[in-house]
Here is the input.
Amino acid sequence: MLKRLPVIVGVVALIAPLAAQPPLDPGVVAVYAKIRQEANDHSHIMRTLHMLTDVYGPRLTGSPNLKAAGEWAIKQMESWGFASGHLEPWDFGHPGWLNERLSAHIVAPVKDHLEAEVLAWTPGTDGTVTAQAWQLMVPDRPTPTELTAFLDGAKDKVKGKIVLVGKHTLVPVNVTPPAKRRPDDQVRAQYDPNNPNAGQFGRGGRGGDQAPAPPMSNNEINLRVDEFLVANGARMRVNDAAREHGQIIAFNNRTFDVAKAVPTVVMRNEDYGRIARILADGTPVELEFAIVNKVYPEGRTAYNAIAELPGSDKKDEVVMLGGHLDSWHAATGATDNAIGCATMMEAARILKALGVTPRRTIRVALWSGEEQGILGSQAYVKEHFGSFESQKPEYARLVAYLNIDSGTGRARGAGVFGPPSAAAIVRQALAPFEDLGVVGAVATTSRNVGGTDSTAFNNAGLPGIGFGQDPIEYGTHTHHTNLDTYERIIEDDVKASAMAIAATLYQLAMRDDMLPRFPPAQMPPPPPARSTGQ
Here is the structure.
């Protein structure tokens, strides 16, 4: 864990890493020292995190919680001296949804409490439901014809039942868990501009599934099973969380229509397995659930929360920074991504507290709809900037967008969409923080949308800067799970990230020139259009 750094140590640390870099102006060195002192002595980051998680979490897109969190964040930034705070609407297209209450019990042949989370955009139980459990053993990798035949054969089994869908997943004990800190040599290789494999290590916790494509996708199978359960009178659906140590990830009914699903929960693997084993003995199991969910039609309009520090002589040019404010609903969304929002708010607050008058306008954006597909930031980019192929007037005036979204781990480096010269500028801004484990920046060229909100800017051909972090427990424990709470944040790590990001923000807001972009002839092509099917 990082310790609080005295300012005198910080000043020395500013100078040492710069031997291989052009020297910083003495005035900049002094500002960097003040950034460290403000971040250490007067940090607001944990208080901001507390409000966004403990008071306003969870923050599902379209829910009143998320709107209230955005309103609070704007008022907080205005109290720090920010201007132009507002909620900016965009069309989510689905109603909001919120789980208000859940109780789950096994009542026969034993009595015990069960751990579960409700699947979003599914209905409540209209009171307490007590019913026999029955396990629907959906075949592995079925074709549409095979699935139809299987479901036809089970029609008379599910009426009036609480249906466990799928076999119990045996989660092996992990005797070689991944390290919580990344080795310095690996991180240096990732952010070394002279390394031909630089950038090969992606964001933690969001890797794709490399398994062969089945005849039907999981989404297609789930949709068919939901239709079957509704049509045949099932009382509830129970899914296996299939994760270790009580971790539960509960996403959503992909139709966003509560009429197209029965009340549905994701149950911790240990409880699901217990019930499945008792059923396998031939012993009847009776379960009891009470679920209260509420739908909010007004949630079809979602909001991004925006506030800014006005610039001076270059005020029409903008440096943006932010993270996504929305979360999933199984926990309070601390590592994903209230702490990212708190870090970016803190980075901008530090500059304001120091009395910095930025030449360019600094704009903080807290996004919604990230968890449903990077929707809020894409809507903002489309509305304000357009794209490289169809530019709006503001397109030419955005210097960069800075983003952080991988949990509590300290920032270790940055990927910069643009030519190598753009990454070199960010690398120089970060160099004085090598003592905090920040090792550099590397250029990226992908315009694919995915993973986090900086890719919405990259997709438009704009300079998105994504900060990479130590994994800590992000991919193994907290990412999207019921464990994603305030307690999982390492205060020293997030303070360190705020320092490095504030320094980068300062440089981009004050330098004479904008961050270099790809010349038109070298702009990477946009990705091919993606299918909109389920």
